Amino acid sequence: QALRVSACELCRRVGEQDVPWMAEARLIREHPVLRSQQVSTYGAWERALAAEVAARTPAAGGTAVRPRVIAAAFLAALRIAVELWFEAPSGTALEDLVREALAETRRQFD
């Protein structure tokens, strides 16, 4: 719940599609060295978020699996929502895409 609320707040702060930011993101996607740095940054965010989740939730069987899966799924949903937003027509709300992506993380993988 707290992660979803924070993601939606971030979306409201971002607002409309930011053309310079989007151009930078496209540049990163097109250059392997920049892309590898981005992957490294995502990994650091994932570890930091997993540590925060672990500190706020009871351990499941004493393992770190649940916090890491929660962090990874949350950040993947955000990344996918942002990528779809970049490709979407002008006026598409990032918050709607984030909500949809996060809703998918709650579904089972059956």
- Uncertain runs are none
Q: Judging from the principal axes of the Cα atoms, what is the shape?
A: globular
Classify the beta-strand content into a percent band.
Answer: under 5%
What is the straight-line distance between the termini? 23 Å
Instruction: Tell me the major beta sheet.
Output: none
The strand count comes to 0
Q: Count the helices. How many? A: 5
CA gyration radius, whole angstroms: 15 Å
Q: Return the string of H and E elements.
A: HHHHH
Mean pLDDT: 83
**Helix-and-strand structural type:** mainly alpha
- The helix content, as a percent range, equals over 70%
Described by its quaternary structure, the protein is single chain
What this model shows, in words?
The structure is a single chain. With 110 residues, the protein is an all-alpha fold. 77% of the residues lie in helices and 0% in strands. It contains five helices and no strands. α1 (2-14) runs antiparallel to α5 and α3 crosses α4. The two termini are 23 Å apart.
Task: Detail the topology: elements first, then pairings.
Blueprint (H helix, E strand, L loop, with lengths): L1 H13 L4 H12 L1 H25 L8 H23 L6 H12 L5
Helix pairs in contact: 1-5, 2-3, 3-4, 4-5
Any key phrases for this structure?
110 residues, mainly alpha, 5 helices, 77% helix, 0% strand
Quick summary:
This protein is mostly helical and 110 residues long. It is built from 5 helices and no strands.
